[in-house]
Design brief:
With 352 residues, the chain is α/β, with parallel strands linked by helices. It has helices at residues 12-21, 76-92, 103-111, 128-136, 196-207, 221-230, 240-249, 264-273, 291-299, 303-311, 326-339, 342-351, and strands at 2-6, 28-32, 43-46, 96-100, 116-119, 123-124, 139-142, 151-152, 161-163, 179-186, 212-216, 231-236, 253-255, 279-281. The protein is globular.
């Protein structure tokens, strides 16, 4: 048995979990506060949300004096959440648990004597909680190619990062004939309110009145795949799963990093811009603090020229980012870690 904790913010963590699960030889149980997808037939543990009853109250000490990221005091949700995970760990005796992502869950699993495989995220992760979570992990998997510098961690952790490439829920297949007037917009579910991507797309629409725009937000994988394979270009944020789907579709992209904790998307945008992939990165994060600054920044861009030049890039270069085998490589890391858990092996032998 393999456990897989999938964070509920956005759809990417859960999509990645299901992609990796398909490549594992072991049974997989997903633990999440997300809604269970209809297509998932494996084990599932519903987790309550860990809201704080004292939001904004400094006395609530939700970070435990900086040791952790989110452990709010007197939170019924946190207590029930951690209790549900602990009960499942006790009863299921998993050989390993993948954590994508939560330092607190990673530590809870490791404190049960079970090895953890942590899915890394880009950005500055040199803070004390991330460093603790990474050091407690038996393996750390990064879903970008080797040689891409999207993550900053403590010096002793960096050599343990294992890049496997991008994991996409849609297959890497030959593109269909592309419509030169069709432009896709890949908008994520994790954004709250009007985003930098929204502002950029509005400005580009005004500059390209003849283009046909197809907005993909919460669309099923078949719709996303068909649209990305037939469009000339895509506008998107800089989330890992959006990039994976773009790369799998071999489509040139204009990427607008969003403001995220730990400079997650900015760091990926910088790495992406230096990678030689068929992208143009327009970093508006520094202008996104006010609506006026954001509008001024987008008006300074010649969107018609930018779209034309980006659409001429060779989308096949994306094959170095997403080759269709990253989920299998991640599964191999997980199975390697699970095989090194002698306690779980003994329990399985006794059960047999």
């Amino acid at each position: 048995m393999i456990g897989y904790y999938a964070h509920h913010r956005g759809a990417g963590h859960l999509n990645r979990a299901m992609s990796i699960a398909r490549e594992l030889d072991d049974d997989v149980t997903i633990l999440s506060s997300s809604a269970r997808p209809a297509v998932w037939t494996g084990g599932w543990v519903d987790l309550p949300l860990d809201h704080s009853p004292h939001d904004g109250d400094p006395l609530a000490d939700a970070s435990a004096h900086g040791a952790l990221h989110w452990v709010p005091l007197a939170s019924d949700g946190l207590r029930e959440r951690m209790g549900a995970i602990a009960a499942w760990l006790r009863d299921a005796e998993p050989a390993a648990v993948v954590v994508d992502v939560s330092v607190e869950v990673a530590l809870l699993v490791r404190l049960h004597g079970i090895p953890v495989v942590t899915m890394a995220q880009p950005g500055d992760r040199t803070d004390a909680p991330h460093s603790l979570g990474y050091r407690a992990s038996s393996a750390i998997v990064a879903v970008w190619p080797d040689g891409v510098s999207a993550l900053r961690v403590a010096d002793d952790i960096a050599p343990r990062i294992e890049p496997v490439g991008a994991i996409s829920r849609i297959p890497t297949v030959d593109p269909l004939p592309r419509d030169p007037l069709q432009i896709a917009v890949l908008a994520g579910l994790g954004t709250r309110g009007r985003s930098s991507l929204d502002i950029a797309v509005d400005a580009a629409r005004a500059a390209l009145p003849d283009a046909r725009w197809v907005v993909l937000s919460g669309a099923d994988s078949e719709t996303v795949a068909h649209t990305l394979r037939t469009s000339s270009l895509v506008f998107a944020h800089c989330g890992e799963n959006a990039l994976a789907e773009i790369a799998a579709s071999r489509i040139p992209a204009i990427i607008i990093p969003e403001s995220r904790p730990h400079e997650e998307q900015q760091a990926m945008g910088i790495a992406l811009g230096a990678s030689g992939m068929p992208v143009t990165v327009v970093d508006m994060v520094e202008h996104s603090l006010t609506a006026e600054a954001a509008e001024s920044a987008v008006q300074a861009v010649d969107w018609a020229l930018l779209v034309r030049e980006t659409a001429e890039l060779d989308g096949e270069v994306w094959s170095a980012w997403c080759d269709g085998h990253a989920a299998a490589r991640a599964a191999a890391v997980i199975e390697r870690v699970a095989a090194l858990n002698p306690g779980a092996s003994a329990s399985r032998r006794d059960a047999a």
